[in-house]
């Protein structure tokens, strides 16, 4: 039983996930600090308010609603999401697109029905494999497969 637990813990996925969570928590703390130190006061200047949302609240029949905590958390979330998207997701997509290999087109993947026997045949076929009648290849499939157009 302990060997199974040891194998589980030492798997690369679990260790990578733990590192990702630790880095994510540290990143969240940095973004929250940035939001509280710079963004919230800037919003306060723009709205002529104090800028400190964390202490904003209202009371209804003796019950306190600290809505400012939610506003601060929402601002931090939006900043975190924007930074992750523009600084991680977009650059990684560009890198992946740059190094992505162009996949070979499977010329038999696009299918159509034979106009004579209604059997499925490849879109680039010029003859039906079932009834052997001559058919016109689909020009779009020919261009996708980078095959020359058929001459009659």
Q: SSE layout and pairings?
A:
Blueprint: H1 2-10, H2 12-46, E1 58-60, E2 63-65, H3 67-99, E3 111-113, E4 120-122, H4 139-144
Antiparallel strand pairs: 1-2, 3-4
Account of the 3D structure:
It is a single chain. This protein is mainly alpha-helical. 55% of the residues lie in helices and 8% in strands. It has four helices and four strands, in the order ααββαββα. It has helices spanning 2-10, 12-46, 67-99, 139-144, and strands spanning 58-60, 63-65, 111-113, 120-122. The strands form two sheets. Strands 1-2 form a two-stranded antiparallel ribbon. A two-stranded antiparallel sheet has the order 3-4. A hairpin with a 6-residue loop joins strand 3 (111-113) and strand 4. The longest helix has 35 residues, at 12-46. The chain starts with a helix and ends in an 8-residue tail after the last helix. The relative contact order is 0.06. The mean pLDDT is 80.
Looking at this protein, list some descriptive labels.
single chain, 152 residues, mainly alpha, two-stranded antiparallel ribbon, 4 helices
């Amino acid at each position: 039983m302990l060997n199974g637990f040891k194998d589980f813990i030492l798997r690369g996925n679990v260790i990578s996930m733990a590192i990702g969570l630790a880095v994510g928590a540290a990143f969240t703390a940095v973004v929250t600090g940035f939001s509280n130190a710079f963004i919230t006061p800037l919003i306060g200047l723009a709205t002529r308010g104090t800028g400190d949302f964390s202490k904003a609240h209202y009371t209804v029949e003796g019950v306190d609603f600290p809505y400012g905590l939610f506003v601060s958390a929402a601002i931090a979330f939006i900043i975190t999401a924007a930074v992750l998207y523009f600084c991680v997701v977009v650059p990684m997509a560009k890198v992946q697109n740059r190094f992505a290999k162009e996949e070979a087109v499977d010329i038999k993947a696009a299918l159509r029905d034979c106009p004579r026997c209604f059997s499925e045949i490849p879109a680039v076929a010029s003859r039906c494999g079932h009834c052997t009648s001559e058919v016109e290849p689909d020009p779009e499939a020919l261009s996708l497969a980078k095959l020359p157009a058929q001459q009659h």
